[in-house]
Design brief:
α1 (2-18) runs antiparallel to α4 (48-58), α1 packs across α5 (61-70) and α3 (32-42) runs antiparallel to α5 (61-70). The protein has 72 residues and is an all-alpha fold. The chain contains 5 helices and no strands. It has helices spanning 2-18, 21-26, 32-42, 48-58, 61-70. The chain is globular and about 30 Å long. Keywords: Plasmid.
Length: 72
């Protein structure tokens, strides 16, 4: 989980610099992490391109969810 956790924290930090807190909250989420988990589990379009980048880097949806669950 060490590498996956590093990737999760890195991607969350990258996405957080691209999306303002106000935009994330306007989409109905408390955080970028919540938005990404929603996009993965519910297949919603919100944040989908960022989420796909994250899934691709970790190799699977399951690995992405596990890494996000362990992330800050």
């Amino acid at each position: 989980m060490g590498k996956a956790l590093d990737v999760a924290n890195e991607v969350l930090a990258e996405v957080s610099t691209l999306l303002s807190d106000e935009l994330v909250k306007a989409c109905g989420f408390d955080s970028v992490k919540d938005m990404m988990i929603d996009a993965i589990t519910n297949k919603t379009p919100t944040g989908k391109s960022f989420v796909q980048m994250f899934i691709d880097r970790l190799g699977s949806i399951e690995a992405a969810l596990d890494a996000l669950a362990a992330a800050n």
